[in-house]
Amino acid sequence: MELVPRSFGRLSSRKDLDSLWNHFFRETPSMGTFTEEWLPSVDISETKKDFIVKAELPGLDAKDVKVSLSGDLLIIKGEKKREDEEEDEHHHYIERYTGSFQRSFQLPTSVMGDKVEATFDKGVLKITVPKAEEAEKKEIEIKVK
What is this structure's pTM? Predict the structure, then answer.
């Protein structure tokens, strides 16, 4: 992600300024107030046996999230619904994220899809994806005729 676009060029109109503004905030996943969608923050780590994916999903329940695996593509999607307003409630400022999201991650090695586990605790989704066991290295004898 760039913090500043490569070149400002000349800002000759309001449209150019709006385009620059939208370009900056569209590339920032945490800026849900300025975009149509929000993307949860995700950490991915690796051990000898597993890939571990942790996604921050504050305000969601496990039933609001779906996890799927297609080959080595891990997909997390869900939706955070807007709370109902009280009849006499008027918002002055809204900064919390709402709406649907989808994150996809290509895993670097083959995995055992039937052994994937997902847990949800205190707004954090943890997915453990076991790596496929590598075939044992076998020496092949070369026969001379």
Answer: 0.64
